[in-house]
Structure formats: structure tokens, C-alpha cells
Amino acid sequence: MKKLLTLVLTLTMLLSVAIVPNAALAGNDGVFTDVCSWPPVNTYIANYYAPNSTGWQIDSMTNEGMFALVAVSGVVYPRLAESYEQDEYTDTIHLRQDVKYNDGDDFTAKDIWSYYILNNGCTVTQQAKSIEIIDDYTIKFTWREQINPSVRLRMIATNVDARIPYHIFGEYVDKAAELLATGVDTENAANRKAFGKEYTEETLAALDANWQAFIQYGPENQIPVGTGSYMVSKMTDTDCIMVKNPYYYNYDLLGFEAIHFVNVDTDTKLAMLQNGDLSRSDGTPAKDVLEGILAGNEALVHYLTLDNASVGVSIDVQDPNLSKPEVRQAICYVLDRDAIREVGNYYGFTATYAELGMPESYVRNDGWVNEDALAKMTQYETNPEKATELLESVGWTKKDDGWYNENDEKISWTTISTSEFQFLNAAQIFSQQLTAFGLNTELKVLEPSVFTATYNTDGEREYEFACNWIDNCWGVYCPYGPLQDGYYKDQFASIAGNFPKFTEGARKGEINMVYPDYNGEETDIAALLKTMLAMTDEEMVDAASRISYITNENVFSIAFFQNSSGYWLNQNDIEGLPLPDKIEPSGRNVMLPEDPEELSIINDHWYIWVAEGLVISNGTYQAK
């Protein structure tokens, strides 16, 4: 089956750029300004993978992949790909033939191959059997196992896979290819690495050493080489000027003479935003700050967006006092999650369920949990009487100084959090609400590195609850993605939650959790997850429904709210703002639309940098 990706093809080949950065910035005419961060330029290396590289917004304008994925919605847009064919085990992708890197070298299929050979720890290389160059503009992916075709496409689209040009990094690519060629087939899934092969310890060490050498190398002129629409012209510790890539295949669509990134702190960013010095900015501040900025600058428009992650607490499910699901359910009934949301993120969306293993919007808007499962799933509202009933059902009693367990031991718990406001504020109210109910809970605020080390501890934990992102859909967009990559497999929720694992045998290290699903069928979560990639869309929803039901009824974690974010656009700088008819009626604070098409538009503009600067590169945004 052949699918053609509709592209607007405009080929303009220019041999030089007549842009003087300082002149381009004068009066800010034709310049798009946003915020980014990067290391001091005296340590900077022009290689995205270097420890001291460009910020990701700069990289998004510099580099492209075959596709761009708007991760929050799963929409895939073609960039360097022109068309593709899929069959049961292969994806053959045909590339644009009018693309050059910003140093003038031709882009070919070898550059895509280079990315996956050198970056061989990525999901695609782990799942693929081989990646072959068919000709200069055709590349073929053969998969080891059957995988849902739409999942395969999104798996590829998560990669900015023209980011390792062979003519720049060929020495390291060739070394990696040589080492990968020594791999052997294996039946031991635990030992499988790139292309499903097993490698000796010496080979793995050599691959790592080659990677470490690669990330310390970059072009001597400190200009990152990419196929993207803009390229770095000048960089200081505080300012980065990007000018049009003279070889860009859609050069005529580019609406800005230059892009200016500023490296500033949050307070300075907000001041620049209100002063009209930024064309765009990410983030939704506290309600009063947001309203003050809008009142102070009538050119600004704020768009609310729905993040694909939730804030909540992971619960140590092996703690003696928390090992019973009745206790974890009782905690849900104690909480006023609206009050937690209001301090954690006023514009967030309060959770209805305990936890689904995925953000709730994917259930409401995308149908990732079926109606049969939802009809049987508990929705947890504040109900202290129900909480009391559940605790008493397992032998707990409440005395004047708080609750005591069945062994007459007083309950004393600890919540850990970092100082990031959406976690700290939420964790504080959570702990206060439990304490007010008699479940005495203190809050410990830890530095991020200490926080990570604390929840990664093996054995007995120094906490009962850990507050952070407890689910996300930041990887493959399908029901499998958040359940496997964002919740159960070696992610915060499962690690901080101390999920039990097999300690020996062929399944050593896998989650050992078997529970009845919504039909009463005993379900091995890890075993079911293993099979999901090969499922049809309908089968995957059924499997996700079984796992989400188990997750919610057993309350392995508690989601407080699905996070919301937002972005600002300056009408004085930009033409092409989304949903223009909603700007004035909303008071220039555009709420999340219910219409799916409008929501998709909002997401495309929000994910500008994740989607490789799409709305700038395709001409949606023009200078005013």
C-alpha cells in the first residue's frame, strides 16, 4: 500500500545570505524573537548531542527529520520524506531530492542511515532488524517483529533523523557500523540490543567510547550543520541570531529575515513579554500574573494548551501500611483534588479517576479506554465517610491523635518533592489534607538530584509518597506509549512506586503484577504490554482498557490534575495567529477548544519547536 504525503514543493536555491545580524535586529523588523537556553559559548560544541550544545529551540530550526510529530496529538507531518510504503514488516521511505544541508552538501538517505547507526540506542534501532539504503533517496526499515504500521510511523517520526550528517560525522558512523556488524542473533530478549543482536561486553564498551568521542566533536566554526530553515549566524552567552538557510527547499515561504533567541531567566522573560520584546513565549504563569500581563500589553494573546502528562504522587505499594488497595483507595477519597490543582496549576484539569497509566484526555478525546471498562471504573470524589469506611474495613482505628493500623501503630508518612512549583505546591496541599484527616504526613523538599537518588533506592524507602509527573505520553502516540514508556517500564511511577518485579528466571527485572481486569480475567500487566505493539488499533485499546482498569482500581498512584500549559503570541510581530475569531471574545486568553480540529490547530502552534519549527518553516507565520 502506497501512501503519498502531500507536500508544497517550492525550490529556491540561493548561494549566499545577505543578512547582517545587527542590522536585522534594528527596530525588530522581520525578526522573530523567543527564549531559549544554552551553555556559555566558550564551552559550546556545535553538535546537538554534545553536553554543551545548542538549546532545543535553536536545534529545532537547524535540523529536520523525515517526519515531524506533534506529540500531544499524534499528528505526523512530512518534512524530508516525500512518500512511503508499508507492508507487514517493512517501511520504505522516499526522500525529497531537493534538500541540502546549510553548508551546501546534499542530503541523502545515507544521512538518515547515519543517524540510526550512530544513535543505536534509540527505540527504532532496538526494534528494527535492519535499516538499508536502497538508493540516494530511498531508505528501508525492516522490523524484527510485527508492529502496528501507524505505531511504526510515529516511532520513526519521534526522531529528528537528519541530525547526524554523514559528511560531518562519518568517522564515528563508520566505527559504529563496524562494531554493530559483530552482533549475533540471540533468543535471550534481555540481551538484545541494536537490531535485535547480542554484543560482547567489549563491543558494547567500544560503542559507548565511540559515542563519547562523537559528542565531543563539532564543526570548528561552531555553526551547527542541518537541513532546517534557519541557521546560526552569531551566538553570545545571551543572544543567538539565526538567519535563513540559503539552500532551504522552501526558502520562499520563510516569513522572517532572522530569528533571535535570548537566554534569560523567568523574571526577565516575563518582563520582556509584557514590554513587547518577544514574538512568542512558552508557559502559563499564575492566574494573577497572566491577567496582569494581558492588561499591560494589548498586543499579546495567550493560548491555553493541554499537556500530555499529569502531576500526582506515586505510592510505595510494598510499604506494609500501603500494600492494601483499600488504604490507597481511602487516600483518594480523602483528597480534594480541585484544591490541589488550584495551587499546582490553576488552569490544569482535575483528575476524575485515581490513575489510568495515561493522561485522562487520551481517554476522553481519543478513546484509548473502551466504554465497557469505563462503566466499571471507580471515579473518586472527595468522600471522607467512604475513606473512613475503607480504613476501618482493614482494621484501622482513629484516635484523638490520628489513625492507627491493625497492629495499633500510629500512621506517620512522608511525601517527597522537588521545589518546582507545580510539584511543591501540590505535594504541600496533599500532605496537609492527609494530616487534617488524621493520616499524619510530612513533606520533605529535596534538590532534584537528591530526589532522584531517593526514589531510586532499592529496598525500604525513606518515603511513602513521591510527587512528580506520574504518567506521560511523550513517546510513541498510541495506548501502548504512555502505559509502557510513561508509566510501567522503569519510569518514575513504577520506580518511585516500588512496583514488585521478578527477581530471577527469564523474566528477571520485569514487573510482577497480576490482577483481575474489568471482565474478572487475571491479567499479567508486563506480559500483556509485551504483545501490544503488534496489535491492531482496536486490540490495543482493549488491552489498554484492561491495564487502565487495573491501575485505577488498585490505586498504584494518584493523579491530581492533568497539566496544562500555554504559549504567548505577539500580534505586533506575527501574522498567522491560530483561531483569530476567538482572540477578542476570549479577552486574548484563548481557552482550550472542544472542537477537535481547533484543538489540533492549537497543538500545532504550541508544538512549534517539537515539530521542528513547522509553523515558521511552512510559512504559516509571517512577519508583520
Description:
With 624 residues, the protein is α+β, with helices and mostly antiparallel strands. It has 3 domains: 2-18 and 47-214, Alpha-Beta Complex (Dipeptide-binding Protein, domain 1); 230-306 and 566-623, D-Maltodextrin-Binding Protein, domain 2, CATH 3.40.190; 308-562, Dipeptide-binding Protein, Domain 3 (Dipeptide-binding Protein, domain 3, Roll), CATH 3.10.105.10. The chain has 22 helices and 27 strands. Strands 14, 15, 16, 19, 20, 21, 24 and 26 form an 8-stranded mixed beta sheet that branches. Helix 3 (109-118) crosses helix 6 (166-180) and helix 11 packs antiparallel against helix 15. The chain starts with a strand and ends with a strand. Residues 1-27 have low confidence and may be disordered.
Integer count of domains: 3
Q: Judging from the principal axes of the Cα atoms, what is the shape? A: globular
Counted by DSSP, the helix tally is 22
First-last Cα distance:
43 Å
Q: What's the CATH topology label of the largest domain?
A: Dipeptide-binding Protein, domain 3
Q: Averaging pLDDT over every residue, what do you get?
A: 92
Helix content: 25-40%
Structural class: alpha+beta
> Which range does the strand content fall in?
15-25%
The CATH class of the largest domain is identified as Alpha Beta
Give start-end ranges of low-pLDDT stretches: 1-27
- Gyration radius over CA: 26 Å
Largest sheet: 8 strands, mixed
CATH superfamily of the largest domain: Dipeptide-binding Protein, Domain 3
